[in-house]
Design goal:
alpha/beta
């Protein structure tokens, strides 16, 4: 079986709205490596978009899911509940930042977690407006894409967005938007467009994912918390991509010294199995009435079993510290290439949630073409990379935190060779 043959079948069978980054079709995967149907090996620096932080098929995760398979696969927790759902909720209530009593609800996807966070915030405040940020990504459902701060491809052709959602610029000094600029726009928004007493929540990614891996400046997060408190607005931290050791902490909000009222999570929680969650202040989480939250597959037993195992692996294998080590090695290698690769405009990211941004040399103009050449050439050499950013000029690095040292070193060599070759060709 050849990749090209499957690609042709895919084109005939699958909606073109489901885009794909590569045309390699996976046959098997282990830790940070994937083998395609033609037997070729790739080093995975995408991790299913920050899903398999604990690696493909981690033995502890697989064992937990196999054990669950021997008991039951589905009862619907709202019909016949199960203990490990309660146990995982207890663990998240303890782990999510915030010195207050918390409660949790499980759903299936990150977008679903965001949708429910907004529902909970509206129910708790009896307000409807929500403020999000430019460059944000919060999902592809209608509320999710309305909150998302990027039109193409997420909003194109889908008609009117949900009402009562407002956007302010995300503070990115590299692109000329300071913390003061963002606060000024927010102040004008409150004066011209929406009464702060009608705002239910702010929603923000501590590090933007699809938007380009820009980290929220600490001063801004602290100020946003102050503004929220002053107006009775809830703060939702979207930790779908930042969560579960990726940034060097279990949750990225631990870097800020302030806590969100509601936290959304998914991706890394399941180690490859679908599960998402919303955790927040107990009184806020209890605002919706019975039946107002949930879903047939919410907290599926296999995802719950995987989630408990993932938390064990992160703790026992020290993956928060591992993220810091890997990120430091990657950024050091990239820094050593700045002279040879003048397209490098910025290297950033906490822990192992890192990115490199490319501009045309000597300018501040984003270079998406160079970025895509780097991605394509790295793939030819056996390294899977993902792009992101509003301008498409950012490569993000998301390999499993469990990647073996020798495989990581091989990946860095491929990356360096790729960058040097692309810079010479340019």
């Amino acid at each position: 079986m050849l990749n090209q043959e499957i690609a042709e079948r895919r084109q005939d069978a699958i909606s073109r709205g489901v885009g794909v980054t590569t045309q390699i079709y996976a046959q098997r995967a282990e830790n940070a490596e994937i083998w395609d149907v033609e037997g070729r090996r790739y080093i995975d620096f995408g991790a299913g978009i920050a899903v398999v932080n604990t690696g493909h098929r981690h033995p502890r995760v697989i064992a937990a899911v196999k054990d669950q398979l021997d008991h039951f696969t589905h009862t619907c927790h709202q019909v016949v509940p199960y203990e490990n759902y309660v146990r995982l909720a207890e663990r998240l209530n303890d782990a999510v930042p915030g010195a207050f009593r918390k409660k949790t609800v499980f759903v299936t996807t990150g977008a679903e977690a965001v949708e429910n966070a907004v529902k909970i915030a509206r129910a708790a405040t009896n307000r409807s407006a929500v403020i999000a940020f430019s460059g944000a990504f919060h999902g592809r459902t209608f509320m999710g894409m309305t909150l998302t701060g990027k039109v193409v491809p997420y909003k194109t052709g889908f008609g009117a967005m949900m009402p009562d959602v407002f956007h302010v610029p995300f503070p990115v000094a590299l692109h000329g938007t300071t913390v003061e600029d963002t606060l000024g726009v927010l102040d004008k928004l409150f004066k011209a467009d929406v009464d702060p007493n009608r705002v239910a929540a702010f929603i923000i990614e501590p590090v933007q994912g699809e938007g380009g891996f820009y980290e929220v400046p600490k001063a801004f997060m602290v100020k946003l918390r102050e503004i929220a408190d002053a107006h009775g607005i809830l703060l939702i931290a979207d930790e779908v991509q930042t969560g579960f050791a990726r940034t060097g902490k279990l949750f990225a909000m631990e870097h800020y010294g302030v806590a969100a009222d509601i936290t959304t999570m998914a991706k890394g929680l399941g180690g490859g199995f679908p599960i998402a969650a919303v955790t927040g202040r107990a009184d806020i989480m209890d605002a919706p009435g019975p039946g107002g939250l949930g879903g047939t597959y919410g907290g599926n037993p296999l995802g719950i079993a995987a989630g408990n195992a993932v938390l064990d692996v992160i703790e026992e294998e020290g993956l928060c510290a591992r993220a810091e080590q890997l990120g430091a090695r990657l950024k050091q290698r990239l820094q050593s290439l700045i002279t040879a690769v003048p397209q490098i405009a910025d290297i950033r990211g906490p822990g192992f949630m890192n990115a490199v941004e490319f501009n045309l040399p000597g300018t501040r103009k984003p270079d998406a073409d160079f970025t895509n050449r780097v991605r394509a050439k790295a793939l030819e050499k056996g390294l899977i990379l993902l792009t992101c950013g509003v301008y498409g000029n950012v490569i993000r690095f998301l390999s499993p935190l469990t990647i073996q040292d020798e495989v990581f070193a091989e990946a860095l060599d491929i990356l360096e060779d790729t960058l040097r070759e692309c810079a010479k060709e340019a």
